[in-house]
Structures are given as structure tokens and as C-alpha cells.
Amino acid sequence: MRAKTLADSTKQSTQSLYIQKLVIAYNGNKTTEIFMEKVHTTCIYCGCGCGLFLHVENNRVIGASPSPLHPMSRGRLCIKGWLAGEFVGHPERLRHPLVRQREMFVRVPWEEALSLTATRLKEISRESGSESVGILTSAKGTNEENYLFMKLARAGLKTNNIDHVARLCHAPTVAGLGYAFGSGAMTNPISSLKEADAILVVGSNTTEQHPLIASYILKARARGAELIVADPRRTQIADLASIWLAPRPGTDIAWINALQNFIIQEGLTDEDFISTRTEGFEAVRQAVSVCTRELSERVSGIPAKDLKEAALAFGSAERGAVVYAMGITQHAAGTDNVQALANLVLMTGNIGREGTGLYPLRGHQNVQGACDMGALPDLYSGYQKVDLAREKFAEAWSTSLPEEPGQTALEMLESALEGRLKGLLIVGENPMMSYPDRTRIKKALEALEFLAVCEIFPTETTDLADVILPAASFAEKDGTFTSTERRIQRVRRAVPPPGEARAEWKVARDLLRRMGVAADYSSAADVMDEIARVTPIYGGVAYDRLDLKGLQWPCPSRDHPGTGILHSEKFSIGRARFRAVEHCEPFEAPDEEYPLILTTGRSLYHFHTGTMTRRTSLLEREVLQPTVEISPDDAKRMNIRNGQRVEVETRRGSICLEARVTQNVPAGTIFVPFHFCEAAANALTAQALDPKSKIPELKASAARIRRAKG
Questions:
Q1: 10 has pLDDT over 80
Q2: CATH 2.20.25.90 domain position(s) in the chain
Q3: Among the four 114, 140, 265, 278, which has the fewest Cβ within 10 Å?
């Protein structure tokens, strides 16, 4: 039996976003006509924001294919994107609202579940104060959903206790780049990378975690650009680099300052740019003057000659770009790490031009959008500060609003442990897997008087809930995502949700109404219209303008085309700001009891806590179980063989998993992916917080490893 391809059947209209295809299947002399729809949408996984079509037959997603006209992905997808629709129809999807009764979950009508959730949260707020309740929303939710849950917290519950998973990935970007440039976002389009003459990739396993972005880096490399990769592990992109720097985890400021010191000594700074467009450089010049390459080698482990080579390559480039991800941000010094990178691009004048700039790679498809929508305790949508914009939003929403900034995600859970936070709504997140020190997180969630969770699948967090609200997946709702390059793009409903599951924007709308807040939204487009009215950087965004290419913010008016490159002529804060930063030892250093450094990250085939990818058969088959990467030297010293069961332990707990002996990690460091509930890496990680952005230390924990008993 042979089926004609879609391209054989009919040619795609370049104008249509919702296309019906005719597929003719042949079986001998008999033909069968099958109608299949293709719905253009945005991928659910990383922040690349790739465009794809979901293939739909009989209200079922049966496949996915790339969007040829998408401005970033250009007809390509990674393995997760090709399989993005498979989990949608999984039999374990949550289909009906559930309420805990006598330690069992019982199916109830939506009206009962919503009324119980609204009533309990309002009761707790009334009895214990508005700071006793909070909301954790999701970077997997749409912009419209994050905006409405932000509104629910502030207008409905009268609290600024609203946060999301950016607190665990790019809060240092919002804080660090916000201070340095006035905007905590990627400065250039991803396509700009192919024009760079030197690219520094820091703490990013780009070819595995953001493959489509990596393709632009490799285009620049093919042109002859210098590729400098800084990562403790020898990743695939490190193999492709012209220079690989392998710092000890937690020592990034030491080696970045050493690069700056050499660039200054060699006269490679852009003095004209520094004098006309920045302030604070002299303090940085003085601070890095003591950061010699030899000192940095002792601290970071990077040979002084390699630091010299990297500094010359980046400092002498006409167009230099810096790409970074969570390997640089998930530290107790995460904000200072980001500032150090900002200092580097400012002193070399590498900002505001094609092929230059800073490229923070967002881990979730809408972590940029969730930040844009004000799902943060101190900011409304568009990064408008709570203390300055409260009256504006109070007028727009016709209600009073709380004055003081709220608590961050981990601060809320710490308050729960102390009995101060008593009610919590979690939307599309699984803190039991993604937050550090899992044992402590579980105690915090169990200490709550009331916990409601809105999710698409059962998780370790829904197990602890009092109310479970079934949510629609990305394939079952309308809305927008904002990619890591600030590109606002449509998400389109391809199939109906299973059972009684609902889009989260509808859940937020119905809770707002139950809390006495006007919420007259009949569609996700209505929500975006309100977002545009109160959010200047989204002021010109509307669904009728979001074609295949979307719009990049800032887009302040309906006639504005959107903005590709930020800071071309000026910074929103006037002059960009240098800030001197100094190396501090990580929260936990190896010692005799715990002699290794544990660092964590992702696998090519899985995403975040595995809720979706571990229900995708091909991805699950590729990586069936967790492993710990250990160097041959450490394995030999500890008498550990490849494939052997071992126990990894820190001061917070232990997990049992299989050893993978590899040259890709240096002696003294071990690596564990965090996707696997059966060996949860975050049972081991520390809760030490960056004082500026409140991100926890997830990339450097003192650990030990030994052969598993039995």
C-alpha cells in the first residue's frame, strides 16, 4: 500500500494558515479518499518558537511537519518538534475535574471545582491576609493565560504573590540585562547570529537543547567565525568549537573577568562606544585589573593560554555575539554572571548591530512571554513596576490593587513551610520535579491548607492537590507564545480537548468572575486586545496582525512593524550601565565528605520534567532511564564500571541510577539529567538563592557517589 505525500496531493497556499489537504491512498486498484487538515501553530517545547503544522484526522493529531515559511525555523524541526503532537492523545490525559475526598480523588462538575477553588482561596485570604495566598503560573501557558492569572492574583486575591518557572531559569536575565540595558530580553533576532565573526557560547548545550538556533551558529562557523564554547562538559557544540573552555562549575565570573582584563590590556575595547553610550566603565576597569589569566586558571581550571586565545578571538572580532543558557544563570551568582557577560559586550561595542548582542536561550517555549505578561511578583505586564504602575492597572481593571511586591516562587514555598502561606494555585508546573531540594518542597506543599493544580497529566504535584483542574494542551486552544527572540506568534486550536478539559484562559476567566472581577472575554483574542491596551511593548499586537512571521516586540502601535534589533541607536534607560562583579565561591564547595561537584541539565530527547516527552513513545525509547555521567579517572578511583548501578548523594538526599563513564565530564564533576522522577536530580540540589534574582543554585552541589548496595 502506498500513500501519496502531501506535496504530491496539492500545493500549499502561502497565504492560508489553516489548510485542508486531500490524501489519496492506493491499495491495488482500489482508492480511498482521506481528508486531513493541517493547522499552523507554534511548537510546545523550547524557546526557539519553531513554526509547525499539526496534522489532524477525525479530531486526532496524527503527526506534525515543519512550516517552510517560518522566519526562524525555515522548514526544519528538531526530533521533539517532529513528535510534538504525539502526547496530545495519550490515555493518561486528565479529562475531568477532581476533588480530594477521604484521600481519594472524586470526579465533580466544573462548577463545583471552580467554586471550591475560588471560595477556599478567598476564605484563606480573608482570614489570614492576602499574603497567605499565591499563584504559580506556567511558561508552558499562553501569553493570554499568564496575563489572566497575573490579573487573578492581583485583582482577585489582592496579592502580588505571583511567579513562574522563569524564577528557576532566566530570572537573572530579567534582572541583569534589565539593569545593564533597560530590557531583560534577547537583543537580536536569532538569524542575526549567522552574521557574527565571533560567537561565545556559555553554559548552553545548544545543538541538543536549541538545535534550530545552533544551525545559525554553525552557519557563522562555516563562514569562518570563531566559535568559543565555555561549558564544564564536552558537549557536541564544544566538539565543533574552535576554542573550548572547561571551567569548574560556579567559577564563571573569574574567567569572564579575565577575558575583560586581557581585552582592556590589549586595547581591544571600543572607546568611542563606551564614552558615548555607557556609564560605569572605570569601576569595571579597576575591578578586573587584578583578574589575571594566571589567577583565573587557579580558580576556574581554564589554562591561561586558552583564556588569551579566547580573549583575542572575541575582542578583535568586528561583530561579536554571546549566547548563554541556564549553565550561566542557575547559580547563586546568576545575576552577576549575566552582568559580567553584559560588561563584555559593552566594552567591545558589540550591541545594537547585526551579528552582535546577547542571546539568552529560553528553556520553555513561552518563558519570555510569561515574563512579558507580568507573571512576576514585582512587575505588571511589559515590565511595569508594581510600585509605579499600580494606579494605572487599578483604573484599567476597575478595582483596588495591592501595594507591596510579592514573594518569589521559592519564597512562597518557604512561607508555606513556616505556616504563613496557606493557599496556592499551581498552573501547568510540577515543582515536585523542577524545584530544588525536593524533600523540602514536598513538606511545603503538604503544609498548605489548600492546593489547587491545573494540569494536562497527573504529576507528582497533582498527587498532593485538593482540587485538580484538567487543562487543554497547546494543540487544543488558541492563544500566543513569545519566543526567545521576542517573536509573538499564534497558537491555534487543532483538536478539541479530551473529556471536559478546558483552556487555562477560560479557567482564569471563570475564577476572576467568581472573585467579583469583570472578565468579559469571549475569546483569547479579547484577552490580547486588553494586553495591548495596558502593555506598551505589545501595544500594536492583535491577532489579525499575527501571520506566519508574527511580530517582535517592542511593537508599540498598530502601524509599527515590530523590532528586530534592540538598542541600535539608544538604550531605553539612556546610557547602558556597567557594573563591577567579583568571583565568589559557590554555595557548596567539594570537601572530604562530598568530594565531587554535581551539575544538572537536559537530554536531547526529553524536556523539563518529562511530563510530555516521557509520554512520547519514540523519545521515551531513545532514553529509557536516567544515568549519571562520571569521568574515567573518578570511575577508576571509585571502582565503578560503565552501566553499574550507583548511588549519588548530597546533603539533601540520594538517588540510585546507572553510571555512564565518559570523557565528556572532567574529573571531579558528575552530571545528572533532571527529567526522571525515578531518580529526581532536584532531590539533591541546593536552595541557596541569588540575592538579586532569587534563582536557586542548581548547577553546583557538593556530592559523592558510590556503588549501589546489592
A1: no
A2: 2-84
A3: 265
